[in-house]
Amino acid sequence: xxxxxxxxxxPEEIAEMLSDIGVASVEDLFSPIPSELRAxxxxxxxxxxxxxxxxxxxxxxGENRQGMINFIGGGFYDHxxxxxxxxxxxxxxxxxxxxxxxxxxxxxxxxxxxxxxTAICRLTGLDVSNASLYDGGTACAEAAMMALRVTGRNxxxxxxxxxxxxxxxxxxxxxxxxxxxxxxTPLDGLLNRAELxxxxxxxxxxVLVQNPNFFGGIEDFTPLAxxxxxxxxxxxxxxxxxxxxxxxxxxxxxxxxxxxDGQSLGNPLSFGGPSFxxxxxxxAFIRNMPxxxxxxxVDRNGKRGYVLTLQAxxxxxxxxxxxSNICSNQGLCALRGLIFLSSVGKEGLADLAVLNRDKAEYAxxxxxxxxxxxxxxxxxxxxxxxxxxPKNADGVVASLLEHGIAxxxxxxxxxxxxxxxxxxxVTEKRTKKEIDxxxxxxxxxxxx
Amino acid sequence: MSMYFTKEHEWVKVEGNVGTxxxxxxxxxxxxxxxxxELPKIGATVKQFGVLGSxxxxxxxxxxxxxxxxxxxxxxxxxxxxxxxxxEGAEDAGWMAQVEIADESELKNLMTQAQYDDYLKTL
Amino acid sequence: xxxxxxxxxPGRRGVKLPxxxxxxxxxxPAFLLRTEKAGLAEVSELDLVRHFTNLSRRNFSxxxxxxxxxxxxxxxxxxxxxxxxxxxxxxxxxxxxxxGGEDFCQGTLGMLYDMGQMLADITGMDEVTTQPLAGAHGExxxxxxxxxxxxxxxxxxxxxxxxxxxxxxxxxxxxxxxxGYEIITVPTAPYGDMDLELFKKAMTDEVAAVMMTxxxxxxxxxxxIKEISDIAHSHDALMYYDGANLNAxxxxxxxxxxxxxxxxxxxxxxxxxxxxxxxxxxxxxxxKNALIPFLPQPRIIMDEDGKLLLETTNPGxxxxxxxxxxxxxxxxxxxxxxxxxxxxGLIQVSEQAVLNANYIKEKLKPYYNLPYDMICMHECVFSAxxxxxxxxxxxxxxxxLIDKGYHPxxxxxxxIVKEAIMIEPTETxxxxxxxxxxxxxxxxxxxxxNNPQALLDAPLTMPISRLxxxxxxxxxxxxxxx
Lengths: 448, 123, 482
Known about the structure:
A: 2 domains, 37% helix, B: alpha+beta
């Protein structure tokens, strides 16, 4: 019986192949596995048709609350995705290809990644980009390890305003290495400069900041970059790519390595993945970059073409001395990012950034006019801001969830003493009507 | 002036207490087109058979080991922009570093040109 | 082909954005703003569509070409999996992390939990974390779990080494290095497996883990695997299973039964999710009970009423290896694949993957040197040593195959085989496809003898001929200037 229609052989073909191999049965091919080691149980349920499979998946998706109105971010953002992104990345010549190790039959993927690297360089204002990393959190960790290699030092300083998830990932990555990680406790949702000054010594390899930070605040890190450089360290910034439609680029600020999560660039929320991490740096650090890099070259006839380059940095050649253990990139997600950026384009990304900020400013004004509600930060924000509520934010969020509104991320579990703080995100997808409903519902929740 | 070799295919030319070092023509040929040479820093101290630097081609990367111990006094900066110099003349313009030889007796741990040529035949 | 940036016209747009329904906010202070807009493409929607459609046509892919790429399991990617993944696109991962948020995510959390249970059954493990984002990420997570295990026993300082065979994937030593270990490499014996005597010599109480792929990268199942595990365990070293080759053994043998303590699974290989031109992958990690206390957080658990919850307060955890729950969209596809094929279907996958590899091996044996001539599992490794006598390398055979419409096998890996050609047909290819491939491989061998220059000149039918990789590495032009 043919249990999987994806295995095409007929019994006659199988018999013919076995005879060519010179064995009596398929079971004979498993004879190298000692019989005492063979599996005695296998409890996967019986299979089903693709129609039944799809119905089952629909039922599973149906067990999640549908149509939630998102005012949450925390690193993943509910942005528009132009139709072309799904259609073009859905070309199976892209998504059923493998890593472009054979460049002659992979120019599609390779040129797209070269264009992606170009987009990331132009967005960040830096010289070089790789072909993408796993996600924003692991990109922070990879950037820190890159700084350790570049400087030969052994201390990483992280601003506590960096996403708590990314900070945790970074600490997990560095835990087993001979590296000290110092966290700066935030001051009113901003970098505590005094505390930073007290730890910035000549053992620091890098200072990692996020802009806009987890509280939503935007800071001008230009003077900080100078200060960090004069201490002989590198400055790494985790950035939100949509905000770079208008905000000063990492390159203009003096950042050495910029990283971030590319989800907001054309990748669906999809319960947290797949997305991609991006990393861009000053040219001098290219040999210390992790992961795949595509480079331009020429063929035997002088025709322009693209190849994976500087592979001698990577694990398949350098093994334990590689710049990273990463093997894959998030190729298809990076392609989605490129298509997204090329679709909205130069003018569109700036407009999109302005639209996000306008919506957020409107929501901020409406929400902070509720009795007892105030805005935490004195600084400017992009599309996220922190509210100070008259009561514990956890209960408020839980009660609004019942009404189909994800009101924001309560800070209590991430920052001690912040139990009344709520980070609210407003993207271009939220309508004025949705914002007004949110304001009303919050008012009710605060009265109860 | 005499030239000595290691089993890992590095050479050192000795002039007084100055040792000039690089990789052998054989090693350069085996690696293929060289794309990058990582050199030590001036003032660094290297140990005999310890890591001096590293070298990369498109498909390979290997460490370069110092044939003798000493303090690095000079490096061949030109390789930064033109690593192909190693392919063109590994035992000449493709030199990598010069050291102040710390202990001349270490030379007895190395092969002479004739010994190295014989060694290559055994590979 | 032109780059998308070379087709730009200032002011042109590819999509219309929603109009604003709120008042414009006062502008930000100038010192926070970028001085010039980012130089992204400026093209119309149609130009954009043509550009990427034409780019896609410059790729070989599973849907267009046979792709017998050893070690990568390039099987067919069922289309229903794509439809299934789209159902989950709107769900925000933060929802589950909000107070009481799990209640609203029982579908997605439940699927991850079930996925863990099924993978645990397939691999013989006790619990699975779905957080790692790819195979190498799983390896790193797994070795960190092992490091935490040793540290909890007070052996952090004592355990210094990870042992790997010389046939291992490069990611194994690279991942172990991030977890703080030094590497001991054990050579392969003439019988194709890690040399048992040298392995015994390498094993001391300072070894933290042994990382193995089984079947190994030569496609051979190591009959001494139980003995190797017993020796490792006698030194309190844990056994790590690189799941890259799991496609060969589903339902036949479980790594957990033969002594492995930690395993990663490559969902994009074994469980039929597309490779995406190099990612996204997904690398769930399975562990035995002794390692559960160290699993990454948030960990998905089920209470007595069958409700799924997130555990975030485990003191022993290694922390977090990714921001959320792993590559969820990839897991949807793998989950749908497993429930669709079911028990018998998965067994059949492994049986026919092994059948196909042995068939190609036997058919090509007269023409190519087969350094380890025995029954293989899901892949076989030839050497182009006979062809080298005519000045033809494995890479030349690879380029010849491109001209014939085949994606080449993996070449030059594993490194222990000179001029390696590693063929993994997978179970989804028909006999007719394989027979045609075999004919072309035979033609390549004959051409190597009769007209070697033809192989050295290949490929001639692609948009470009062989590329100058040295120039790329020396010049490092990695983005378009201007």
